[in-house]
Every structure is written in structure tokens, then in C-alpha cells.
Hints:
The protein has 13 helices and 16 strands. It is an alpha+beta fold. The strands form 4 sheets. The protein has a 5-stranded antiparallel β-sheet, with helices on both faces. Strands 11-13-14-16-15 form a 5-stranded mixed β-sheet.
Amino acid sequence: MTADAGRLESERRLEIATRAAAIGVWDWNLSDNSFVYSDTARQICGFSSDQPITLELLRAITHPDDLPLTSAQARAATDPQVRDSRVYRYRIRRADTGEQRWILAYGEATFADVEGVTRALRYTGTIQDITDQKRAEEALAESEARLRLTVDAAQMAVWEVDVASGAVTHSPQLNLLCGFPPDARPTLEEFRSRYAPGERERLEQESAAIRERGGTQMQTEYRQLWPDGSEHWMLLRAAFAPGDSGSSRVLGVLIDITDSKRAEARTALVARELQHRMKNALTIVQTIARQTFRDASDPAAAVDAFIGRLQALAAATDIVTLNDWTDGSICAVVEQITLPFRDVGLDPFVTEGKDRLLPSKVAIGLGMALHELCTNAAKYGALSSPEGRVRLRWEVEEAGRLSVTWQEVDGPPVVVPDRRGFGSRLLERGLFVEPEGRVQIDFLPEGVLARIIVNL
Length: 456
């Protein structure tokens, strides 16, 4: 085979390969600015088969935003000191339809010494339409961005664990949900150290039971306890998957459900409190009726007094059940709550303290505490007998704390309860929680003593 025949055969093979790969070939003669474009290259750009190719035409179809890039690339490639031949991407607007397409281009310059100066004579390369690939990349990037937004908005973390090695795929979201710095790399055991007592054993038992049944998915809730003592609830969803070499992996998501758990607890507390107050309502009404009609010589006046006390009881109930209480004074709270249990002729309350505005949260909590103490005293304590009295005193201490003292005297003998009912638990642990405040109750022989301390 002659040299010319070999060259022609090589060119034929190259043409077949480039046509099969939809790769266009171009050549730029820098001495006279003439261009040669292969049929595939013309088709990519939307040129007709006999259309002359000029530098102005090529610039016209190049996207205006990408023209600086292609011009800079050509200068760098044809500069003898640079000779840049990197692959680059840019957009064109097809000459025939105006449709925007993405192009992957590559070019190399041919240099020669001309009169003692090295110059680029030709700039030859390839172009390939990668619009479909580019759109797929953009769609994938958009999908990943949406996933990241969803994960962040839902306080969710995606995780993966290699069961054999214990290796964890880390992420800032996973670290934050488990109480670690975003850039930390905790081990599996360090993650498990956040489990509340008993949770690790329970999770392992659930996982083993699912896998024994042939299951591949698991969903459960568990509780974390962080080093600072805070409690956090997590929803765990996992899928068991075999690995490439026979090992197994566990993949899943972790979702922070602490707020919803706290909301559930508050709802349960309100439901128990409502049930408790409904049980007490009849007892309070019976007590009011007994006190009102005990020695009533004027039935009409007694009925009026009874109705007035029921209305006062309704007003007091509003205070401790409505959530739109605004800043109010201590005296207003005390007066409204104790009014149903007072008698014009024989007031069982002795109050002492200066008035002061309270934040709404403190006002509601104080009202609920006093209402509960009044209810218990009317059922079992000083307010259940004509001779009983309640000394109610309050002051704001120098440390900025409100101190309220409730002292029952001259009532029936005090019987220390053998168990704490809902009312006692509500007073001691439900209304104020350290360090915001506390309620302490002592069952003294002379009468119940309660002290309410609240930070203002």
C-alpha cells in the first residue's frame, strides 16, 4: 500500500468513527481565515452543505454570553507561549432554526517558524452536540437541589451504615440532628451514645425481628439524650440492602420530631387537666351551694348569691383555660380566682402584697396554681369548713423572683395523701419547670402550706 493510499484509508476510518459518534470536524486556516467544516459539523451548527463558513458567521451563531469564552480559548490555543488545548463547552443558536444547543469543543493549533518567528498556521478540532447530556445534568442538579431543600426544611438527614465495618456516611444534617458539630466525623458508637437508656436494645430487637421475618424496611421512633441534658425525639426509617461483596448496608433517613412529640405531650396534659377539672366542677358547685344555702333565711337572696358565685367561678375558669391572657396585675389574678370561694359576710381569705404587672405566661400559670389550690381547699382543706382561713401573701424578691405563699389555717385535720393525684402533679411539675419556677406543697398539721416561686 502506497503512502497516499494509507493516508486515504486512515482518513476514511476517521470519518466513519466521527460520523458514528456524531462528532464534527473543523479546520481554521489562520493565514487567510478560511474554514472547512465536515458534514456532521455543519449539521450540528445548522449550516447548509454549500454555505460558506466565515469567522463572522461563527461568531453570529455563538451565544452572546459565551462569545468571550470561545474567543479567549482560540487566542490561548493559538498563542505559541500558551498552546491551550483544553476541552470547553459553549452554547450556539443554530443558523437554520435559532434553537439553542450546547456544544463540547476541542481544538489544537499547528505551529511553524515563519521568518524566525513561531506562529500558529492552523487551528483544527472537533465539536459535539451535548444538549441532551447537558439537560440531563441540569435536571439532576435541580432534583438534588430540591432534595436538599426538602431535607433541610423537614429537619431530615440521609444516612448509610456499613454493617460489617461500622462505617457511617457522614453529613452536616446528620451531625446536627444527633448533637454533633456539622464538620465532625462521629463513629457509629458515638452516634449510639446519644440513645436514651434502653433505646439501643429496643432498636436492635426490632431490627432483628424484622430481618428474621424476611423484611427489608423498618420505621420506628426513638429518644436521644444529649450531653447537655436536652431530650430529642427522632423518627427513623431504614432499608436493609446487600452490599457489593456480600456485606450488608443499612440506608435510611432520620427526622427530628421533637416539636411534634412536645405538642402531643402538651395535648395529653390539657386533656388530663380538662378531665380533672370536670371531675372537680361538681364538687366545687356543691361546696358553693352548701355554703350559700346553709343558713339562708331569705331564699331569693340566697339564690342570687348562688348565681353570682357560679358566674365568678365561670370567670375564674376562663382565666385558667383561655390562652389570650395579656399582661395583668397580681391583684387582678388573685381577686378573680378567689372570688367564687369568698363570702361577703365572712371572707376566708387574708391577702397581703403589692400589686405588679405580670407577663401573660406567668399570669396564666399563677391563676391555674391558685385555682387548683382553691379547689383542693374547698374539697378537703380550710375552705371546706366555716372556720377555715387562707393567708395569701406575695412579694417580688430582690433577685427578680415572684414569691407567693399560701397558708391554710383552722381547717379540718390535715391528712397527708398516700399518692399524688393529677392536681398535685400539675401544681408541682406541670405549671412551672425549673429554672423558670416551681411549686412546693407541704402538708403541715396546722394546714396545707404552698409556696410558688416564679422568675420574672
